[in-house]
Amino acid sequence: ICTAHSKPKYRGSLHCLKVIAKEEGFGGLYKGCSALLCRDCSSSAIYFLTYSTLCDWLTPAGKNKPGFLVVLLSGGFAGVLAWGLATPMDVLKSRMQVDESGQHKYRGLIHCARQSVREEGVKVLFKGLGLNCIRAFPVNMVVFVTYEAVLRFTDHFTNKK
Predict the structure, then answer these.
(1) Pick from 61, 81, 100, 147: most CB atoms within 10 A?
(2) Which Pfam families match (predicted)?
(3) Does some domain include residue 52?
(4) What are the distances in angstroms from CA 141 to CA 76, 80, 94?
(5) pTM of the complete model beyond 0.85
């Protein structure tokens, strides 16, 4: 029976850390780490490669720095593409992290992937993809505008000397 007023398991981040370490040991703090590593390594490579390539393609010949609109579009598309690649591993990471200590439904990343696909089909790996992409476009537009602004700001001061 689920009640509307059930108490949360954790009373904050330090309490969460303490409970997980007590119930699952030190390794419990790293559940989902393999999926996180796969997610972040591949998506970061795609993220920066996409941004750089799009900036190069969209910057007119003769200009050495991309314009504001180019940065916005390149950053937005880079974020969407990176999250498109990252979402399946993010789904698996989340499933591994919420696997309760007494339950141990998943023995590792491959087992989690197989079980999830067997039970719910391949579409399970893309849960949240639409929302990730909708969020990723504007967020990464701002990230790269800020990145370029900081680069130009630091270039201004380093070139003065």
Answers:
(1) 81
(2) Mito_carr
(3) yes
(4) 5, 10, 26
(5) no
